[in-house]
Amino acid sequence: MPNLLSAKKNLRKSEKRRRSGAVILEKIKKLIKSKTKDKKSLQSLIDKAAKEHIIHKNKAVRLKAKFLK
């Protein structure tokens, strides 16, 4: 557990970022596994995740190339 005030704040920030990133990743996984593949929403979610540095930009390109053909 952090002792310094700034370290406590960084812990709160990183936890908040981890949760929001996990939500977006879950949405991407659900869209990939879904039977009706909504390509437009999948592409926008992948782009959003890459923009917010949740996934790497090259991984986003690979995912889009794989599922949006």
Q: Could you say how many structural domains there are in total?
A: 1
Quaternary assembly = single chain
Average of the residue pLDDT scores:
91
**In this structure, how is the largest beta sheet organized?**
none
Work out the helix count.
3
Shape: elongated
N-to-C order of helices and strands: HHH
Protein described:
The chain has 69 residues and is an all-alpha fold. The protein has one domain. The chain is built from three helices and no strands. The longest helix is centred in the first third of the chain and has 29 residues. The protein is elongated. It starts with a helix and ends with a helix. The mean pLDDT is 91.
Name the descriptors.
single chain; 69 residues; mainly alpha; 77% helix
Task: Describe what is shown at a glance.
Helices cover 77% and strands 0% of the residues. It has 69 residues and is an all-alpha fold. The protein has one domain.
Architecture blueprint of SSEs:
Blueprint: H1 5-33, H2 39-51, H3 57-67
Helix pairs in contact: 1-2, 2-3
